[in-house]
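Sharing a chain and its predicted structure for anyone who wants a worked example. Both blocks are below, sequence first, tokens second.
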Amino acid sequence: LIPEDLVPVQNIGTLTLNRNPIDYFTEVEEVAFCTQHITQGMDFSSDPLLAGRSFSYQDTQITRIGVNFGDIPVNRPVCPFATTQQDGHMAMFSKRNRTRYHPNRFDAVPVTPVEKGGFKSYPEVVAGIKERMHGPKFNEYISQAQLFYNSMSEPEKDHMVSAARFELTKCMETEVQQAAVEGLNLVDHGFAVAVAEVLMNVKVPDEVNPNHGKKSAFLSMVDSKSQTFTAEGRKVGIYVLPGFEYSQIAAAKKAFEAAGMMAKVVGPGSGPVKSSSGESLTAEFTFENSRSTHFDAVLFVGGSTPDYTKKLKIGRLIHAVREAYMHLKVVGATGNAVDFVTDICLPGDFSPAVKKETGIAMENGVVLAHSVGTGAEFAEKFMAGVAKHRVWDREVSHIAA
């Protein structure tokens, strides 16, 4: 782990992903990534971890997909003269050269000299004593963990605590729990104390390794300098039932798509869902085959009749609201779906003023609109919330989903 603060990232090119795999097995499962695959101008460092991986990855691919894994189409180099390997199981080419080594009496496949771009290993000076032991730098394995922990935002630290609690409470061996907490205590005493709150048989040791306090501005996924959140590319699930008000969602859906978002309709069944005015939206997802976790945000569209709210009282929909809310995602509701969200799904989470608002209101990252007007303001508020990725300050400890 080399912090970008010390070694800034330099962009050397763009890798464009322009399609999904046609055949997942041949284009994904058979990919053989190896650390020994290097390009011209690069060489291996003396890092013992890299050296070990460079040997073991080769063995892994041979065991996994055969000695000729480099000839499989997805792994095959663009240059057809990139290797002198031949024969073996599952050989895929009939070699035309009489020999695949050099020097040879035919002077075939000559080695490219260094002055013409041939490979030359970097003349690095190496020295050391051969022993069956770890080198001194293996004894210092705490400072980078501290750097990582210190660089996280508060929500990310909370997530790490929750994850450690989740895993360790599944362990029935107190000795293992104790050892894990002692390891965390080496990184940060507060981290260890927070995790141990749910481990009743574990005692947190005193602080033995003071946290150095250093941070990197590039490690957090929330507030890193290199992290930019926008609404573009986000997927919003739009939940509708037959009889929904088309005018409440038409303009907003167009605005979402114009901003580069993916607006996916979720209905009681796949196919067209008819609105009260006769227009239809095609549902790609259903209440049964999807979860709120499929989407970055969810939006519930109201209907034109008073009984529409009753129709919304479906367990799957109530769970979708609560689950998305618990995961700190933006939630939206229009028309009489507002009452469904505020009174049925999330009672007690909204102020009276917001619930009485006849226009557009936003509280706790939930965008509510009894009347959306042209839809532009609603879409703008909704997308602004989505662009922040999550509603980090939302309190959800009381939500069960």
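Comments welcome. The chain has three domains: 1-13+140-223, 31-127, 235-386.
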